[in-house]
Amino acid sequence: MKRAISLLTAFFALSVLAAQAASTTATGWISDSMCGAKMTQGTAADKTCISKCIKNGMEPVFVDSKKEVWSIDNPSAVNKDFYGSHVKVTVTENAAKKSVHIDSIRAVK
Predict the structure, then answer these.
(1) Do the strands 99-107 and 69-72 form a parallel or antiparallel pair, or are they unpaired?
(2) DSSP code, position 45
(3) Domain ranges of the chain
(4) What is the pLDDT of residues 8-19, one digit of tens each?
(5) 72 neighbors 82 (Cβ within 8 angstroms)
(6) ∠ CA 16-17-21 to the nearest 5 degrees?
(7) Under a CB-based contact definition with an 8 Å cutoff, are residues 48 and 20 in contact?
(8) Strand 60-64 and strand 23-32: pairing?
(9) 32 pLDDT higher than 90
(10) Given CA atoms 29, 33, 35, 37 in this order, what sign does their dihedral have?
(11) Inter-residue contact 79 to 52 (CB < 8 Å)
(12) What is the tens place of the pLDDT at every residue in 45-96?
């Protein structure tokens, strides 16, 4: 009986990890950690401001369609051409940390 419970516990733990590691696709904006969802209109001024903030030390963030701000675990995956842009990303999210790992990114036209 103890062995069955141990196996079920291990199976459940692995299932939770697998569910958390699933990739998802989302549409949103690349902003900076200071401005967050404030600069998500895609204007030239937004892009310039976000680029300057990131250049001066702020981290890039992903702002989803609900205007929720997610930190990016792998900021090097975001090319500077995407700063301030509307993008479609494939991500692995960590809801507990409110962060995403970007697997792929492309501009939305």
Answers:
(1) parallel
(2) H
(3) 23-107
(4) 565 555 555 544
(5) no
(6) 120
(7) no
(8) antiparallel
(9) yes
(10) positive
(11) no
(12) 999 999 999 999 999 999 999 999 999 999 999 999 999 999 999 999 999 9
